Amino acid sequence: MARRAAGGTGVKGARRPELRLPALERFEGSGLEPDGDYDGLEFREADLSGQDGGGARFMDCALTGCALDETRLSRARILDSVLAGVRGVGTGLAEATLRDVELTDARLGGTQLHGAVLERVLVRGGKIDFLNLRAARLRDVVFEGCVLVEPDFGGARLERVEFVDCALKGVDLTGATLTDVDLRGVASLEIAGGVDRLAGAVISTGQLLDLAPLLAGQLGIRVEG
Fold it and tell me: Could you count the other beta carbons within 10 Å of the beta carbon of residue 1?
């Protein structure tokens, strides 16, 4: 059901993933393989650092407590899966597809998701530093109770994206396109670039007051006295 923004303007809410994982088998392999096919598997406390799973498909999988430092997953497809407590720096997911995915309590830095497609994705809890979502497409994505430090949405397309009880620090929206993006639940909103791209988003009255100096600067308005 669409929520109501200030002034009676409707904003369409994001559809969350509805996951029902089957009974999973423990992954017993030696590591990831490019273009690998992983179906109904549980990766628990696995060290996948530096491995190459580019183009792989993960279907009905759970990655729990895994290390993903410099793991290469470009163009991978992660479908109907859960990633819980994963950690790592420089995880490469460029041009990947995430559909019906839950990412919970992650500790990630420098994750590369540029050109990726995210649909019905829930990011709950955790902290992600320097998330690169440039030119990505996000549809029905919810960020809930998490901290995003300097996320880069440059040139991205966001449709039905919600931020609930989140902190957005130094977010870059340069060249982004926003449709039904709900920012009212952002507890700390800091925009480093692209304030002019907020058309298509809904913000709270308090956020408007906080952003007033940036908006005035964008419009060339001088505020004196």
Answer: 6
